[in-house]
Structures are given as structure tokens and as C-alpha cells.
Protein 1
Amino acid sequence: MTQPPPSPPSPLSPSSPLRPSPPGSPLSRIRVGSAPDSWGVWFPEDPRQVPWQRFLDEVARAGYEWIELGPYGYLPTDPAVLTEETARRGLRVSAGTVFTGLHHGAAVWERTWAQVADNAALARAMGAEHLVVIPAFWRDDKTGAVLEDRTLTPEQWRALTSLTERLGREVRERFGLRIVVHPHADTHIDTEENVTRFLDATDPDLVALCLDTGHYAYCGGDSVRLIETYGERIGYLHLKQVDPEVLAGVVAAGTPFGPAVARGVMCEPPSGVPALEPVLAAAGKLDVDLFAIVEQDMYPCPPDKPFPIAERTRRFLRSCGA
């Protein structure tokens, strides 16, 4: 197994206005970061996305220490290169991200594992401890074309849960990472009913949850209630808000997720829902080490738009104690 590189020193000094929460505070074990998604990055390559160097420069300048890898291939995939680029900016990697379609059963395992292994190897080499797992979409996020039924059969649920457990076991054994499954709009793990069904059917030792507050609100869920009810399953957070007025129109029109994002359904905190202060407070009560990664879905977006939002969001989260 590839050994992770030494962790770079924190760029935050005790006198910095962006210093971490003081030891003993309710949020002292929550580590805040951001991700390429907050810079409008959805794909490894796209001319409408900012270059990776600009993302790294700006995410550090906005006051974040932790980042996710984003779509595999956007950031350099050579660990030596990426280690140098992140370390000189005072950045560290919290997780990689993969998309899966495990409800399709054993036939997709080898194809799934091939992309998981690449992502996991890079994440581990960068010193990360998590792999964010996002289920496949049931409709195309650009065209809205229905790809399959939005409701899984009992057989598909069994395939989803059993193969996710297998994924958790093999990722841990081969790479030393913990998988955190990300409920997501337009997937089969979305609403409170489906999220709790998934959690109840999977082994807590193998499968944790990446609670994305924006996606969960988008699908009608209550993040605070989920944390309070399934706290032991929360392994990772994505901090995000939705604009309730835009969301109401999206739901009424049956708009796919991609066009909904283009309409601004995911908005800058603290202007949307859910309120992040009670989410962070509930997470702080778990008294566990927890990443809280800002992800404001913006695709496509003007290249100069993300940085001011990222900087303001970091200040807002600091005002919440995180």
C-alpha cells in the first residue's frame, strides 16, 4: 500500500482571524474545507472550468486548509506533483470522490472497482482518510432523459446495499480509507425514506454517510434530525444550502438537477436552507473528528464568481464557530 506523504504544516497561526475553533469548543473537532465543485468544476476537463492552478490558489487564499480531489483527472494525478502543489499552498486533501451504479449488481463490479481504485490510490497517497461515494443518476443531469426507473426494486436494493458493503470492506482493506456514501438529488439515495432505508440495511462498520445538507434539503430531508437520529453513521459533511424559491419552481416543473443548478438552486450561505448553525451544532455534539466541506454547486459559472463567494462563506462559517 502506498504510504501517505507527510502532512504539510497548517498555514494558520494562533493570531490569525481564521484560526481553528479553540480546544474544548463544541466545534473544535470539525475541520472545514472546500472542493472544486465550489469553483464550478464538475468534469476532469472542460473549457468553461477554471484551471486547476487557479482553483488551488484561490481556495487557499479564501482561507481553507482542506480540499477534496474533485473529478479524477482535474487535479494532477501524480502524487508527487500534487503533493508539491498543495503543500506549497498550505493545503491538505480530505477525500476523493467516485460515482457508482452498484444497484445494477455484480455485472458492474469490475468496471466500478477500476475507477474506485484509481481514485482511492491517489486519495491515500495524499494522506486522505475518506472516499466519497455518489450513486448513479436515474435521469441524465443535463438533458433530463430518464435512464431508468427512479424507484429501485427489492432485488436492486439488495444489490445496492450488499455491494456497497463490499466496496467499504475492500477500500478499507486495500487502501485504508473509509467510504462515505453521499445522498444526491436525482439518484436512488435521496429522500429521508431512501436514506434511512439504506442506512438500516448496511453495516455501520463498513458504510458511513456523507451528509450533504443541500442535497438532503433539495429532497425534503431534515439534516439536524438525521444527525440526531443516525449520529453514529455520519462520517463526513458537505455544507450546502438551497434557495427555497428556486427549489419550489424546480420541483413543480420536474427540472433535472443540472438545469436546476444552472438556475441557482444551490445558493450562497446564509441565504438558503437549511440553516447551517444548527447543523454544525448538532454535528459538534457527536464529539467526533468530522470534515465539513463546503460545496456550492455552480456549473457552469463565470471564472471570477467563485472566489468572493468562497471567501464570504469561510467568514460566515467562522462566525458560526467552525
Protein 2
Amino acid sequence: MAEKLVIIDTDCGIDDAQAIMMALTAPHFQILGITCVFGNTTVENVCQNVLKVLSVCEREEIPVFRGSAVPLVGISSSGDHFGGDGLGDVIKDKDPQWEDKISMEHAVNAMIRLVSENQNQISLVALGPLTNLALAVRLDPCFPQKLKELYIMGGNMEGIGNVSLCAEFNFAMDPESAYVVLEDFLCPTYIASLEYSCRNSLPWEFFEELMNQDAPAARFMKTITSKCWAYSKEAMKKRRDVHFGPGFVSYDSYAMAACVDGSVVTESIQCPVHVELQGSISRGMMVLDRTNKLKKSHCVYVMSKCDTTKLSQLLMESLRQPRNKQPEK
């Protein structure tokens, strides 16, 4: 398989960590950088979380860039899905030197530079609010056409929300940026929505098997999910299960899996999409225009069905890290 150049844009919570680990185990991936954005927690915590994941997987050579701390418009807020720090509030050994390990270059500038240096070669995987991407196209209007492809975890297909009545978390955190990206990015775009992730959930028995593997990455994931309500079968009964039934969902892994292996996605809806900005109830909701009433020229691929067997294999492999450890003499 030909080498794939990748940039990961993340608001690193627990599911982002899982997705990043999946990327680290993809043998054909060359990760040029990881750009950080607010979302699951503050951008400062996101940077530290990414560094922690890379440290656990012994991949600290990958550059990390600090990006947007607030949305384009309005007041910044963070979610509580994964605790205050984004990784379950269980990590005690914080690195006091973390800022020295972050690149001095701003994430948006790094994104523009890397894409300009590798035109039509980079796959960009966006796992958080789309603020960095929106700023990139505002600074360089040609940025999207220099990308090979864009994968997004975010938005919804049916108006089912998880932070508001009608909006998915990543889009709800910065609706204006989601609007800008889905209007201005004309590159091939693939969206793993909230409903796609939840309708292709995995059994909780698989989650137990996944977390109980004997490897540093698996032990790390077991620790950070151990006290997190978002990974509680019981807590989900009054939340996600109401709409989708029981199951384990690692949201960001669905977008990453599609980038790693396109055959994981077995069905997609190709159509224009629109992000609602004005509605008092529907602000941040993604609308699928399947009959093209809006007369938009650009279509995206909204994933709808998943090969959960292949997804399971990618998830299992992602926690068998670090690789290439030399046996002790």
C-alpha cells in the first residue's frame, strides 16, 4: 500500500487518543504533524494529552502544534464527556516541561505550510471543532484545493444531537467554523457523523476485550476510561442508548478508520450539506440536502454503513503499542 501523508487535527479526549493510536499503527501512514484545538478540554490540556499519547506509544518524534483556544465567534466552552482534562481526570504525573515539547509554530500556520509543501498529497483528519481548518482557509483561500482529501468526525444526519437537541458536539462547539469548512473546502470530503458512529457501535464485550490486552497502550486506555461516565454501560442507558440502543462507540475512530482503510465504509450518502447557524434549537446541526434544493455544486460523502469487523481489527491493533521494542539482552 502506498504511503499516505497525514495531518491529524484534534481536541484530544479519550476517543481522539484511540484514533491517534490507530493512526500510529497504520503501516502506510506518515504523520507529518498533530495540530491541537480546544473542544473536549482547553487547548493547553489538548497539547499535553497528545504528548502523553505519543509518549505512551514511543512516537515522540511527531511534531505537535498548539492551535485555536476559542471558536471563531462567541464564548469558548469545553465538554465534559471525558472529564475536565479530556483524559478522564486520572493522570497524576503531569509533565511540567510540556510547553518545551510543543512547536513554536502556530497550528494553523503549520497546517498551511505542510499542505503547501506537499500539494495534493495530504489527508487531513479532523477530530474536533473545525476552528483551525476555518482559519486556514481564511488565511490561504487555496488551502482546500491543495489537500488530497478531508476526513471529519462531526455533524449529524438526522438532527439527533448529543450536546444540544439537534447538534453534534464538534459542530456545536464552533458552528461558524463547521459552516465555513463545509462551504469552502471543495476537496473530497468524508464525514463520520454522530449517527454513523452510534448506529455502527460495537458490543460492550468487545470493549472489555479491547481494554484488557497486555500492552502499554491498552493499559493506558483502560486507565483513562476507568472512571469516565462516557465509557460506562450503565450511564449510557439514559443517554446514547435512548436513540441508538446499547453499544461501545469510539467516535473519532470511525473517521480515522475510514482514512486508514476506505473499505471499512461500506455505504455512503453523496450529497451537498449545510450547517445551520440561526436556529434557536437547531444551531450547529448539519443538514443533508439529498434533493439539492440549495443548488450547491459540491457534494460530500456522508458515511452510513460500516464493516464493524474491520473496525474491530483496527481498534484491537491500535492498542498493541509501542512497536519495535528491542528485547532485553
Protein 3
Amino acid sequence: MDLPPAPIRWRATAIPFFVAVLFVSTISPSRAIYCDEDDCYDLLGVSQSANASEIKKAYYKLSLKYHPDKNPDPESRKLFVKVANAYEILKDEATREQYDYAIAHPEEVFYNTARYYRAYYGHKTDPRAVLVGLLLILSGFQYLNQSTRYNQAVAMVKKTPAYKNKLRALELERSGGVTNKKKSQKNMDKKTEEDLSKELDLQITGAEMASVWKLLGVRFVLLPYTLGKLLLWTACWFWRYKVKKYPYSWEDASYLTQRSLSIPLDRWRNIDEATKEDLVLRRLWEKSNLESYVAEMRKESKRRR
């Protein structure tokens, strides 16, 4: 098969290419997603430099002219839809800025298209509202979990003989050592038991009563205050004990002792005062004293075995 001359072949392939280029340059795909083949500003009859008030007035004027209730012509209805769409794009500063950028940079097709779909089909929820909602949900579950654990722990403690003995001793104390013989040891009046149980301070390790101040949401709200308080405490500690070389106060020495022994705060509070005083006087925050104390505890543990 004979091929046509090269110049003819070049013209045959180049003409469709130039037509395609001309079409793309005339109607940019990134612009077409906004107002199809039309210009949003031309649809409203305003310039690109028009302010929000001018755009609004132009839309109201055209809507009175082309609205289906005012003009029954089918072509008028189509034009009204285009005008309304152009107004939705230009009335919002963010979408108008995106459209202006698409006009100025028609070559960035994919970028302009992505911005358009993100603006119109992306989530509209304020991230701050999502964060607040998430904190409320987590705080609710946290409070429910703490309450359930505490109530279960209290129910288990109330079944122990030690608790019942304390309850009986408290009843004897309140009655002056006189008990009602009609009541057996096992059948204490429920109302009396509830009243007496309220007077007993139950210290349950690992299960504390639910507190609003320990919830995640409350702590997040108070985070700036907490950080400020921590920074102030750190500065005062550094000034008092590092710069001025003052001796440790009893509270600070207790804190250092508790931290050196890695004892949780709730357990430290439950230690009797005599044991606390002995531990603090040992100055266990000093490495040599702590090593001696640990060795002493190991020897004592071996003797007990």
C-alpha cells in the first residue's frame, strides 16, 4: 500500500491535534466543573472585580426575570438554574477564590478539580465540634466504667467477713454496747446497714469513686491551667532547692520518697504515718540510701521465707 507524501500525512495528523488544543484552551476542564461551558461572571452580568453586593443585586435581578414562577418558558428555567449555580459559587469567598484561581491557572486541571470536589463534597462539620463530641463520648464511657468498677468492688468488699465485723463493731459503738436480741447476727436491718456503711470509709485499691475532675474532657479543658501550674511548681522547686539550696520541706520530702519507691499516690496515702515518717527520714531519694533500703528489704523477705 502506497503512503501519501510526508507533508500530507503531517497535515492529516496535526489538524485534529490543533483542534483539540484549541478546544481545551477555549474551555478549560477545571473551569467547566464550575459553570459548565459558561463563565460564572458572564452569567450574572458582572465583572470579575465585582464586590459581593453587586453580585447579590445581579442575581436577584436575574432571578426575577428567569424564575419559573415568573417566566414559564422552558429555556428560561434552564437559564435560571445556571444563574443560581453561578451565584452559589461567587457568593462564597472560598469557592469564588477557587474559581478565580482556576481562571488564572487553567493548566492545573487536576489541582483545580480536586479543590472543587473537596469544597462541595467534603465533610462540612467543624473539626472543633467533632473534637468536643468525641471528648464528651469518651468522658461518658470513662465515667460509666469508673462507676461500674467502684460499685462492683464495693459489693465484693461488703461480702467479706472483715467488713461485716467492722459493721457490727460500729453498730455496737452507736448503741453503747447494747444489741437487740430479736435481731440475729446474720439479719441486720437493711436500713441500719446502709446508714452504718455510709460511715465506713472504704479504701479500695485499684477502684476509686468516679470523679468528674478525672474525666478526659475536663482534663483537656483544664490542660492550660495544669501546664501553667506545673511550670510554676517546677520553677519554684528549682529556685528553692537547686539555687538557694534550702532543706526539703516535709511535703516535698514525702513526694521524693514516694517517687523513689515508685509507690502510687493512693497507696502512699494509705500507709500509716509512722511508716511514712520512717521512710522519709531515710532520705531514700539519695541513691546510696535507696540501695541500702532495697537490700535490707530483700534480706528481711528471705528471713520470712
Protein 4
Amino acid sequence: MKTLIPFLLLAIVFSCAETPKNETTHPETEATEVSLQDYHSFENKDDQFTGGIKLIPIETPKGTFNVWTKRIGNNPKMKVLLLHGGPGMTHEIYESFDGYFPQEGIEYIYYDQLGSHYSDQPKDLSLWDLDRFVEEVEQVRVALDLDKDNFYLFGQSWGGILGMQYALKYQDNLKGLIISNMVSSIPEYQKYSDEVLAPQLPKDVLDEIMTYEEKEDYSNPRYLELIVNNYYVKHVIRMPVDEWPNSINRGFNHLNPDVYVTMQGPSEFGIKGDATLKNWDVQDRLKEIKVPTLTIGAQYDTMDPKHMEWMASEVQNGRYLHCPNGSHLSQYDDQEHFFPGLIDFIKDVDAGEMN
């Protein structure tokens, strides 16, 4: 089974291609803007000693464990908790945010979910359950003093599943929700993978990949080579493998295969076998989400961008951001559209322009 390649890799229509970078201003938010000195200051903060790092105890049916978080910046009205993909990946895939959020005064929190590299990694597979992860996020929120006046939840890929599920139970605690590169139905994801993405591969490549899939020989080095060089560079991160950012490579190396395979399964062409997320589908419940919501899709994503656009029209207060040059990791391969659109959404919600 392939243990180092994750799923991460698993209405108002708004095209980010139409928004020039740094052009939009938000005079209404001047009262909540913070100086650079205040933004970067740790004075009178209980995490000054650790440089923003907090280990948060999480109560589970199997005992108490610690999860790792790290706060970047201070802003009383804009705090973004980042939910990584995988499942079992790490916060490292979001290190590109360091290049864009600080100068906008947006506070953000790195977070390794339970089982991920910087947090505790218990071996009980029963912990890798969607509903338990939802309760974990809620405990993290409480520990970090996040609330409806400042709490933005960003989830990408598996993190998007977790973000949607959290919002369906706890949206009254949210100020804004961002669902990045994730559709609202695993069966729809599987259909898109089978009927749209797989046939785009050269026939000889697809045939060879399928021989390994049929034998469930997912750990075969040749299978991994074919997937990375023919699928990932087109639909996960559109860069030559030798140019992948160090943060992405570290994230892959730190992936927890127990979490990943239990929930996502071993295949790179959808979710198969007895993976616990195989039948997850909340398409019919999106209309319950009333909090301002941004969905982010990308032209070359493993997820259908049309479905992402549709999701923005299903929630009660949605906006869609399209990344025309991006794939599953648009925060790296389409930064010129991803970050301006994301920042505009956060500031528009703060200014009351999404109400």
C-alpha cells in the first residue's frame, strides 16, 4: 500500500481570475486592523515562552491525548484555523500562508490533528473516525478562545470534509467557513476520478496503473512512480517533482499511514475497500449551512471544480473562488489567484459585506 501519498494530494459566484492581486481595499475594516507591531507581538500572551505553540489536551473515548498548534500573529477579529488534508497529513502543507497572511494582518493557526506528526499518534484505529475528529476541532476551538466574532475555519481536501461536518454541527461558533479543493460527496469524487480524470492519462499508463490496482499492489515502487509522474504533477501539484516545495515533501514524509489508509484507503484513484469515508455524502445538507462560506475549486484539481461552484450556490451565503491554473494544492501552483481571493473573502466577512 502506498503510505507516503495522501488523499490531500486526498449564492455568489466569484472568479479569482477576475480579481487583480492586492487591488481590493476594505475601508470598513480599519477599526479592526492591527499595527504590524501589535500583530507580531507576544507581549502578555500565554504562549510567548513557546513562540505561539500550544499543546492542547483532547478528550477521546480512548483517553486524553495532546494535539499541536502554533499561532501566527494577533488579530482579535480574524483568526483562521487551518485543517490539513490526508487524513494523517500535517500543517506543513500550509507554510506558503506565511508569505501572504501576515502582511494582511490575518491571524492563523497551524494545527496537526490527532495522529499527525507533531501531535500524539495513538495506535487505536477506532480513533480515526469523522465524528470524533469533529469533537476534536471543537475542543481545539474552545482551548484557543475562538468564537463567532473571529473564528474562520479553513479546510482543504480531507480538511474540507472535516470543516463541512463541523459546520453542520457547530456553525454557530463560526464567523466564516472556507472549503478548499473538496467536494461534498465521496461517491461524486469517485465518479469524477473514474470518468473524467483517469481517461485523461495515456492509455498505456492507465492500463499499467490498473494492473496494480486490480492486484491491490499499492506499495509497488512502479505503481508509485506511475502515479506521481503522470497523475500528481497534473492534478495534485502542477510542478515537476524535483521542484516540489520542501514543505510538501516534508508533509509527505510525515504522513501517518494508519490514519490515511483507515479513512481514505490505499488507492490513489478514489476511496475504495472498507475505508471509513467511502460513503460520506452531505450534498443534501449543504443548504443547512448559513455561515458565510467560500468554496475554492481549481481547473486541474482531483475534485470537480463545477461541483465546488455548485456548492457555493447550495449554502445559504456562499461565494465561489476559481483557480484557473491550479490543481489540488492551489496554495502552491496558483498563488496569484488563490491568496487574493481567500484574503478578500476573509476581509469581506469581517466588513459585513457577506451578510
